[in-house]
Specification:
With 358 residues, the protein is of the alpha/beta class. The chain has 2 domains: 7-140, 3-Layer(aba) Sandwich (Rossmann fold), CATH 3.40.50.2300; 174-348, Hypothetical protein af1432, CATH 1.10.3210.10. The protein is 58% helix and 7% strand. Helix 1 (15-27) links the parallel strand 1 (7-11) and strand 2.
C-alpha cells in the first residue's frame, strides 16, 4: 500500500519550545507546521492533511484536551501527543483516556519525543490501512450484495416463469378448463386486495392459485376431458389431484406454505371437503380463499359436461354455503369484487401485470 507523507502539527504557545521542536522534527525530514493557539490549531487541522498533533495541555485560548477532543472528532485516525509542564497525573490519565497516543512531561529529551512520534506514525499508518481495507471491504460487500440481489431477482423470475409453465402444462392437458388456474389466482388476488390482506398472503394465494390443480398431471386425460358425469372410481382419482399437487410442490422452498394451500383447496369448513375432511381453522386461510374462488370460476365457466352457469349462479352457491362450507369474509369480499366489476367475467378475471415476490 502506498504511504502518504506524514505531516505533524505543533500547537504550543511557547515560541522557544515550538521552534526547537520544529527544528528537531524538520531535521528528521518530517513535514511540520506550528500554531500558537487552540483556535489556530483547529483551523489549520481542518484544512490540512495532518497525521500527528503535538499539543500543549495549556494553550493560551483553550485547553489542549479540548483541542484534542475536537481533532479526534474530526479525524479519529489522527495521533496526538500531549505535552505539559504542570506534572498533574490526573491530566495525563484524562488525556490518555480521551485518545492521546502519548503524554510527555516537560522538560523532556528530544529523543523521547522522537520515539513517541515514531510510535504515533506506526499507529497512524495501521489505522489508515485499516480504514482503506474497511472501505475496500465495504465496496466488495456492496458489490457482492448487488450481485446476489440481481441473482435473487433472476431466480425469482425463473421460479415465476416455471410456475406459469407448469400451470400451462396442466391446462394444455385439460383444454376444456384452459385458464382456470390463472383465473382463480387473479380472483384470489382481487379479493385479497379488497379485504386488505398483507402482501405475503396475497403472494401465496396468487402462486397457490396458479398451481392449485397441478396434481391433475397425474390424472388420465380421458377422465379430465370426459363429457359425461364421472364414475365414482373416476371421481376418486380426480380428488387425488390435491395430494398429487402437494407432493409435487412440498420440496420447493417458497416463502409461504403454497403446497399446503394446494393440498387443502377442496377442504370445507364443515368437514365435508377432501382429501382430509378438515374443519374450520384446520384449513389454512389461503386454502379457504382458494376454495371460494375455485367454486366461483368453475360455476361461471364452461365445463366438458355442462355449459357455463354464470356468475349469478356462482354467487348464489357461495352465499348458500357461507359460514358452513366457505369463509364468511371471503364470500362477502368475493361478492363485493364481482359487484364492483358489474358481473363482467372478463373484468373479474382480467390478469394484471405485476411483480410477484416468491
Amino acid at each position: 500500500m502506498e504511504h502518504m507523507p506524514i505531516k505533524i502539527m505543533i500547537a504550543d504557545d511557547n515560541e522557544l519550545l515550538s521552534s526547537a521542536l520544529y527544528q528537531f522534527l524538520k531535521a528528521k525530514c518530517y513535514d511540520v507546521c506550528v500554531v500558537s493557539s487552540g483556535h489556530d490549531a483547529l483551523e489549520r487541522f481542518a484544512c490540512c492533511d495532518i497525521s500527528i498533533v503535538i499539543v500543549d495541555i495549556n494553550l493560551g485560548d483553550m485547553s489542549g484536551l479540548d483541542v484534542m477532543s475536537e481533532i479526534k472528532r474530526m479525524y479519529p485516525p489522527c495521533q496526538i501527543i500531549v505535552i505539559t509542564g504542570c506534572g498533574d497525573e490526573s491530566k495525563a490519565v484524562q488525556a490518555l483516556r480521551s485518545g492521546a497516543c502519548d503524554y510527555i512531561a516537560k522538560p523532556f529529551n528530544m529523543e523521547i519525543l522522537a520515539h513517541s512520534v515514531k510510535q504515533c506514525i506506526e499507529k497512524f499508518e495501521l489505522m489508515r490501512e485499516n480504514s482503506v481495507y474497511q472501505k475496500q471491504l465495504e465496496e466488495l460487500v456492496k458489490q457482492r450484495t448487488s450481485e446476489l440481489e440481481e441473482m435473487n431477482v433472476n431466480l425469482k423470475q425463473i421460479l415465476v416463469k416455471t410456475v406459469e409453465s407448469l400451470s400451462r402444462t396442466v391446462e394444455i392437458r385439460d383444454p376444456y378448463t384452459y385458464g382456470h388456474m390463472t383465473r382463480v389466482a387473479e380472483l384470489a388476488c382481487k379479493i385479497s386486495d379488497d379485504i386488505g390482506m398483507d402482501s405475503k398472503f396475497r403472494t401465496c394465494v396468487k402462486m397457490a392459485g396458479s398451481l392449485h390443480d397441478i396434481g391433475k398431471l397425474y390424472v388420465p386425460h380421458e377422465i379430465l376431458s370426459k363429457p359425461t358425469k364421472l364414475l365414482p372410481e373416476e371421481f376418486m382419482l380426480v380428488k387425488c389431484h390435491c395430494l398429487f399437487g402437494y407432493n409435487i410442490l412440498k420440496e420447493i422452498p417458497f416463502k409461504c406454505e403454497i403446497a399446503r394451500a394446494v393440498k387443502q383447496h377442496h377442504e370445507k369448513l364443515d368437514g365435508s371437503g377432501y382429501p382430509d375432511g378438515l374443519k374450520g381453522d384446520e384449513i389454512s386461510l389461503e386454502a379457504q380463499l382458494l376454495a371460494v374462488c375455485d367454486v366461483v370460476e368453475a360455476i361461471a365457466s364452461h365445463r366438458p359436461y355442462r355449459p357455463a352457469l354464470g356468475l349469478t349462479e356462482a354467487v348464489d352457491e357461495i352465499t348458500r354455503h357461507k359460514g358452513t362450507k366457505f369463509n364468511v369474509d371471503f364470500v362477502n369480499s368475493c361478492i363485493n369484487v364481482i359487484t364492483q366489476c358489474d358481473y363482467d367475467l372478463e373484468e373479474i378475471f382480467r390478469i394484471r401485470d405485476e411483480t410477484v415476490e416468491v
